[in-house]
């Protein structure tokens, strides 16, 4: 049987906790537990778990800036560091025209929700973790995972999964019409069969969630209704 890959997109406090800056007011809490359970299941069966963290320069929290820059430089190397930094700042300034400050590196809102953090801990070094400065998984950089992937791009993660015989990608997480949709588009474009269980993704409200699911289906993702969920 071909291996599955599970994408866990931006399951962070700023998108889920009631104190988050782009919050869904805890409406997503039951979904976080389902995602954590599925992470364990996919890991047990020998599949791959790829998590993303929306990660922006700490413009409003300069106390984290030195650590942020050092972390990127050590992971990416000097050749890619400056170009990545320029892209990260440019992308975040554009987002700030639409959204309040969110997911700035090192802040409480940037952290994964508690149940997801516990699942990350259980997976240990088998978790592939991508920090991304834009909506798109492919723009991110691998911060944790197999040694050959650390410091590589999201594009190279998709290539790695292909090389490992993965045919199906399950996309979960937040926010349905934004970063979840972008992950689906990237995975479909890479040739994967992509499924999205509506019980495992969420948005700010029901209307935007439904609009996101429609756009996911339009992008080639297979949307599994709640009644037929995994």
From TrEMBL:
Sections of the chain in a coiled coil: none
Name of the protein: nicotinamidase
Signal peptide start and end residues: none
Lineage, uppermost ranks: Bacteria, Bacillati, Bacillota, Clostridia, Eubacteriales
Residue ranges occupied by any Isochorismatase-like domain in the UniProt entry: 5-227
Keywords: Hydrolase, Metal-binding, Pyridine nucleotide biosynthesis
Organism: Symbiobacterium thermophilum (strain DSM 24528 / JCM 14929 / IAM 14863 / T)
GO molecular function: metal ion binding; nicotinamidase activity
Family from the record: Belongs to the isochorismatase family.
Annotated SUPFAM superfamilies: Isochorismatase-like hydrolases
CDD domains: cysteine_hydrolases (cd00431)
Superkingdom of the organism of origin: Bacteria
Pathway(s) it belongs to: Cofactor biosynthesis; nicotinate biosynthesis; nicotinate from nicotinamide: step 1/1
GO BP terms in the entry: pyridine nucleotide biosynthetic process
EC number in record: 3.5.1.19
Stored Gene3D superfamilies: Isochorismatase-like
Enzyme class label: hydrolase
